[in-house]
Amino acid sequence: MLVELLLRPRRAERLKCVHLRGARITDTINLEGLSVNCPVVLQDCYLDERLVLREASMAALRLPGCRLPAGLDGRGISVRGSLELNDGFCVEGEALLDSARVGTWFDCTGGQFVNPARVAFSANEIHVGR
Questions:
Q1: What is the pTM of this model?
Q2: Distance from C-alpha of 44 to C-alpha of 80, rounded to nearest angstrom
Q3: Secondary structure (3-state) at 28
Q4: Percentage of the chain modeled with pLDDT above 70
Q5: pLDDT number for residue 104
Q6: Could you give the number of structural domains in the chain?
Q7: Fewest CB atoms less than 10 Å from the CB: which of 10, 59, 90, 124?
């Protein structure tokens, strides 16, 4: 339902921001290669499945306090505003942001990246405006 809300053209034109707090999201959020024109804020949410943002284009993405036990694939993501993985954000498994482009700032202050078996965080060739 969240993906449908973000991608429906008529609805998305009217959205100023999508902000969920304290939600448990049990299905995969897969925005691979898609464009989201409003900021997305998931605050203190729990995502059961991997968050897939590979090659997506987004206005802004803020995930303060979120838990992602299945990892994050944001390789090649383009964020026009800020990308925030902070304030208690925790990802288990791989957090991949290789070749990401962030327009303003990237903040992972207070974030945790945990993957005992492999690489926990990879951001090779990331470009950040500030």
A1: 0.92
A2: 23
A3: coil
A4: 94
A5: 96
A6: 1
A7: 10
Q: Which two tokens stand for residue 58?
A: 């987004």
The confidence score (pLDDT) of residue 12 equals 46
Report in angstroms the alpha-carbon separations of 73 from 9, 14, 67, 78, 130.
24, 28, 14, 13, 22
**What Å distances lie between residue 118 and 68, 69, 94, 97, 122, CA to CA?**
16, 14, 8, 15, 11
Query: Tokens 């729990």 correspond to what residue?
Result: 46
> How far apart are the C-alpha atoms of 22 and 43, rounded to whole Å?
6
For 9-32, write each residue's pLDDT tens digit: 555 456 788 999 999 999 999 999
Cα distance between residue 119 and residue 130, in whole Å: 25
**pLDDT of 6:** 75
- Domain boundaries, position 107: 2-128
